[in-house]
Amino acid sequence: HRQLLMTPQDSHYPGGEQISPLVWRADSFYVMAELVIRGVGWAWLPRHVAQYPTYQGHLQELRSDWAPLPLVVELVCRRDGALGPAANWLADCLARELLRQQA
Q1: Is 44 exposed, middle or buried (0-12, 13-18, 19+ CB in 10 A)?
Q2: 50 and 10 co-located in one domain
Q3: In sequence order, what are the beta bridge partners of 6?
Q4: Contact of 32 with 14, CB cutoff 8 Å
Q5: Distances (CA, A) of 89 to 50, 59, 83, 97
Q6: What is the pTM of this model?
Q7: How far apart are CA 44 and CA 50, in angstroms?
């Protein structure tokens, strides 16, 4: 069956691994969802895309033991400025989550 993947070819988003010999590429998860609805193929889609109101009743989630690799997230900021309150809050949240996952 045709697998729909996100463009570009070297994309490393979770679920972006090619596992089918037949692949089409798209530049949007919403385009991929539309193609799945039209019967063009299948795709790994973010849950928020699959649950988009327009797609309700048209897409079916398939359960699998397969799980994507964890998504790597890095916090970057300018070297010449201090973090503001929102960035400090985000950094604290990310640090707590990292510690929770390592426990």
Answers
A1: buried
A2: yes
A3: 26
A4: no
A5: 30, 37, 9, 12
A6: 0.62
A7: 9
Residue 101: domain span: 73-103
CB proximity list for 5: less than 8 A, separation 6 or greater: 11, 16, 18, 23, 24, 25, 26, 43
Whether 66 is covered by a domain: the verdict is no
Residue 17: the pLDDT is 78
Whether 44 and 87 map to the same domain: the answer is no
Give Dmax (Cα) for the chain: 51
Residue 12 lies in a domain: yes
Spans of the chain, pLDDT less than 70: 8-15, 67-71
In three-state form (DSSP H/G/I as H, E/B as E, the rest C), the secondary structure along 32-92 is HHHHHHCCCCECCCCHHHHCCHHHCCCCCCCCCCCCCCCCCCCCCCCCCCCCCHHHHHHHH
Q: How many domains does the chain have?
A: 2
The identity of residue 27, as a single letter, is D
CA 16 to chain centre: 8
